[in-house]
Each structure stands twice: as structure tokens, then as C-alpha cells.
Specification:
It holds the Pfam family 23S_rRNA_IVP. This is Four helix bundle protein. InterPro entries: 23S_rRNA-intervening_sequence, 23S_rRNA_IVS_sf. The chain is mainly alpha-helical and 124 residues long. The chain is built from four helices and no strands. The protein starts with 10 loop residues before the first helix and ends with a helix. 28% of the residues are buried.
Length: 124
């Protein structure tokens, strides 16, 4: 539920939607010796972005908030890695992987910007 907010700027909704899109994508990946490790890694990283963002939103301190956002940032980077690997293993899914990769990259940049802004305010 977005409560009238633009979903693009509602990070809780955006990260939840991203996790859902990762699950839907992962269901398309054929299970074989190569992909059997990639699928759970991709799903784990892709869905944890949203859960860690929810934890950050309920952080007990500023330090805790930055820590949780740092995890979101790391998980977004990990998703990019696994999407790249899946694209090699299953070339026919490369187009959809590019769309997801772009969103993972944008999320990574957003979390990085928030973290940098908070850290720069602490130095002032």
C-alpha cells in the first residue's frame, strides 16, 4: 500500500516490489547443475533489500539506520552480480535481467547517496 505516495519514491514499496520481481524472474530460471546455486543466492539477496530497509526504517539509532542501509546497498550489488551470472547461464533471460539489474543499480545508488548524506552531516 502506497498511501498516495509515488511508488518510485516510496522505498518500502519499491524494495518490496523489487523483491517480488526477483521471485517472479527466478521462477523462470531452469534448475540445473549450474543454476542450482544461483537461484537461491539471487532470491536471498533480492528479497533481503526490502526486509533490511524495513529494519532501517525502525532503527534504534542513527548508527543502526546507517548499518541497515549499508546492508541494503551491499545486497543490491550482490543482486547485480547474480543477475550477470544468470545472464551467462541462461542467455534467453538476459533482457529481463537487464531491467532488474538497472533497478538494483538505482537502489544501490539511492542507498549510497542516503548514507553519504548522513555521514557528511555528522562531520559538520
Amino acid at each position: 500500500m502506497t498511501d498516495g505516495k509515488n511508488p518510485k519514491y516510496d522505498l518500502e514499496e519499491r524494495t518490496a516490489s523489487f523483491g517480488i520481481n526477483i521471485i517472479v524472474y527466478a521462477k523462470q530460471i531452469p534448475h540445473n547443475l549450474i543454476t542450482q546455486r544461483m537461484i537461491p543466492q539471487l532470491i536471498g539477496a533480492g528479497t533481503s533489500i526490502g526486509s533490511n530497509y524495513c529494519e532501517a526504517d525502525d532503527a534504534e539509532s542513527g548508527k543502526d539506520f546507517v548499518h541497515k542501509l549499508s546492508i541494503c546497498k551491499k545486497e543490491a550489488r550482490e543482486v547485480k552480480h547474480w543477475l550477470r551470472m544468470v545472464s551467462v547461464a541462461v542467455p534467453e533471460l538476459k533482457g529481463e535481467a537487464r531491467v532488474l539489474w538497472k533497478e538494483a543499480n538505482e537502489l544501490n545508488l539511492i542507498f549510497n547517496a542516503i548514507i553519504k548524506k548522513i555521514k557528511s552531516k555528522k562531520r559538520q
